[in-house]
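Entry 0007
Protein: ArsA family ATPase
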Amino acid sequence: MKSLLESLLARERVFVVGSGGVGKTTVSAALAIKAAIERPLSVLVVTVDPAKRLASTLGVRALANAPRRVELDGLGAKGQLWAASVDMKSAWDDLVLQFSPDEDTAKRILSSPIYHNLSAKFIGSYDYAAVQVLAALTADDRYDLVVVDTPPSRNALDFLDAPARLREFFSSPLLAFLTLPRRTRFFSAATRPFYLVADMVLGSAFLEDLTDFFSDFARLAPGLVEQSRSFSELLTVPATGFIAIAAPYGPSVDEAHRLLQALKTRDLNAVAFIVNRSLPGWLFTSQAQGARVWLETEAPSALAERFARDSKANAAVLRVVSELVFTHEQFGRARDRELVDALRDVGIDLFEIPIAESELDTPRTLAALIASATRTQR
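Output (structure tokens):
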């Protein structure tokens, strides 16, 4: 039976998707650590989640766009582990420097107040920056395996669609309109009324700055468009896979199923569905079931004999036994509901990772988390 690690290693790039709070960052780090320990691979884990929890999860100082080596001392690692996190500001700056046709264009863009506002506050700018950073990182042949921790799923589809939106922007009528020579616009019958009003409200200096900025920014188009197109293609190749993560039941399971359907419609390869923080398997072993049956059928008489001279103690112990039996039954019902929800319309491998029994604060405990994963039969 294929393990979770084997499902991961079947690809060269794996994107981990799911709603917020289901342990995406932790599982991404754990998968990368386990792969680096078990295989002679150079493994990179990178977070696109703006919360940036990956550094603390791995026990290293702050991460940046440039990958940083993570030590796996004492774990007998066969491979190497690297980690990175998308920093939006430096990502945009690097892109401007990389794709500007000349140094003067880069300087004008980087010094523009419009650039600073757009790169820091414009909706979707994080997705665009992340796409460009990941395009470079995932295409880097120094890494045998790249594990990507994506934004929470309310943004995940935006992230996946960002390459196409970027290409649409550079070919849009809006950009063509913004980059027309200003004097041409003023002599245009169609645009003259708008710019006369805009001049009065915003001032002619602002309109000139806006035109100059977008004219310079448009010069980045060849490099940015080509990189985003390559990234879009990379998402669909067989070597790229997606893992969906959900909590045991509730809204996150529905969200994970929605994401899996969205991946399917985009021709993206879903390789596994992980139910994280599920009830531990030992609760449902034959030994556990046997203990419950004994408590339910034989314990009352055995306890009555033991506490024959103390009716109050006997009643108290029987209440405890009854609560234990009831709790185990509730666990069983929760487990059944969990599996029914998770298995709904799933055509890929389903794995369960039980609730961790210790703090997940070291590479060793993270690796153990993946070792505890079990595959669930459909």
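Curator remark: Confidence is low (pLDDT under 50) at residues 200-204. The first helix runs from residue 4 to 9.
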